[in-house]
Amino acid sequence: MQVRIYRPAKTAMQSGRNGNAKSWVLEYEPAAPKQPDNLMGWLGSTDTTSQVRVKFATMEEAVAFAKKKGLDYTVAVENPRQQKPKNYSDNFRFDKLEFGRF
What we know:
By secondary structure, this protein is of the alpha+beta class. It has a domain at about 1-30 and about 50-80: atu1810 like domain (Double Stranded RNA Binding Domain), CATH 3.30.160.190. The protein is built from one helix and six strands; from the N terminus they run βββββαβ. Strands 5-2-1-6 form a four-stranded mixed beta sheet, with helices on one face. The chain has a two-stranded antiparallel ribbon with strand order 3-4.
């Protein structure tokens, strides 16, 4: 079976780096396509492994688990964060003001 190991992104409700960003997740790739239910129209699948998400503290623990279980795994490395340094006082700089534009 194919699994994916990744570090989830923070949600829109998180302002810092903590939260989901500390843990690593092992998630099974879908083995069967989703089919619409005839009565309700909801999407469903017979593949129950798509519901399994296992959290680990480190990437090495997740890789060791996948190797122990004999799973084919891919590790999705995260892109480095790019932050521009900002100062609150820059919003009120005199040389930044443009007169005549409203």
